[in-house]
Amino acid sequence: MIYLDYQATTPLAPEALDAMLPWLRDGHANPHSAHAAGRAAKAAVEVARGQVLKLLPEGGTLAFTSGATEALNWAIKGTRGPIVTIATEHAAVLDTVAAEAAGRAVTVLPVDAEGLIDLEATRAAIVPGTGLVAAMLVNNEIGVIQPITELAALARAAGAKLLVDAVQGFGRVPVPEADFIALSAHKIHGPKGIGALWFRGEPPAALLHGGGQESGRSGTLSPALCAGFGAAARLAVARFDEDAAHVERLFGIARQALGPGWTINGSAAHRYCGNLNIRRAGLDVARLISELRDIAFSAGSACASGSGRPSHVLRALGLSDTEARSSLRLGFGRYTREEELMEAIERINAAAARQ
């Protein structure tokens, strides 16, 4: 299997697995217990917390969650006041914001054909009294990087909080200053089932009620998952420049190998290079995926893959339903080899040409 679906999930790093195994095999104590075994588990959790924090701005608090979906819900539902967000956000933001719309004013900013917000329109939307601005750092479907630093300045000037969905950018690009940052371990070669919400100052109001173990977030933590997340973060710190250079080189190779007939969806300049979302006129992507079953690539977000609807992200760029359905996403990263990427693209080109 040639795996080119890094935006859906990344391969587990061997170092993360090694960090998890002792806690899965022997370390069964509750990290919130006061006895020696519990304190040892708690120590492992705190080591992991420190490792994740090394990739984030200084001066904040990190609370582990079940994943980024919970973190995003917590930040949105735990704040008050009008919300400003972007049309290309993940469903975990857009659906949560829609659920909040009954009691809070909501503004959803459009994007241009490259997937970027217009800063003048954004400035007009983020006014004094705005409670929360929610924006994705790196888009999960098209890889576009929004101007988060400028958004942060606009939010600060209006007295609003900024929530950054950093799931696709964490460990890959620098994470900017914000008030809330949502993370997911399995997007940086860590385990599934754990994420985090970083926040500055007071935590948002509780989403889950119970023991309040994690800065008001309730639930027993898994030392194994925390250790795996921490090890993946430690590796991302150590390999940050190496991984970035590798991905940039693969992106250049992929663009050249695809050849004419393909169009990149989203900005070619303002993007993370490990995400290549492309379209070809008349292409039946569902048929392509069926024909190339030993190549793992995507027609869009894995979270919406069963909906049957064209991608809301691609529609927000102004693409027609037909153009959106003729688009595919290639995601690659640390463990992708040049020769397997070339083989995959050669076979994708051949299958597309047959159509």
Task: Produce the secondary structure layout.
Blueprint: E1 2-3, H1 14-25, H2 36-53, E2 61-65, H3 68-77, E3 83-86, H4 91-100, E4 106-109, H5 119-125, E5 132-136, H6 148-158, E6 161-165, E7 180-184, E8 195-199, H7 223-238, H8 240-258, E9 263-264, E10 275-279, H9 285-291, E11 295-296, H10 312-316, H11 321-325, E12 327-331, H12 338-354
Parallel strand pairs: 1-11, 3-4, 3-5, 5-6, 6-7
Antiparallel strand pairs: 2-8, 7-8, 9-10, 10-12
How would you portray this structure in words?
It is a single chain. The longest helix has 19 residues, at 240-258. Helix 2 runs parallel beside helix 7 (223-238) and helix 7 (223-238) packs across helix 8. The protein folds into two domains: 2-9 and 240-354, Alpha-Beta Complex (Aspartate Aminotransferase, domain 1), CATH 3.90.1150.10; 14-238, Type I PLP-dependent aspartate aminotransferase-like (Major domain) (Aspartate Aminotransferase, domain 2, 3-Layer(aba) Sandwich). Strand 5 (132-136), helix 6 and strand 6 (161-165) form a beta-alpha-beta unit. A seven-stranded mixed beta sheet has the order 2-8-7-6-5-3-4, sandwiched between helices. Strands 9-10-12 form a three-stranded antiparallel beta sheet. The chain has twelve helices and twelve strands. The chain has 355 residues and is an alpha/beta fold. It has helices at 14-25, 36-53, 68-77, 91-100, 119-125, 148-158, 223-238, 240-258, 285-291, 312-316, 321-325, 338-354, and strands spanning 2-3, 61-65, 83-86, 106-109, 132-136, 161-165, 180-184, 195-199, 263-264, 275-279, 295-296, 327-331.
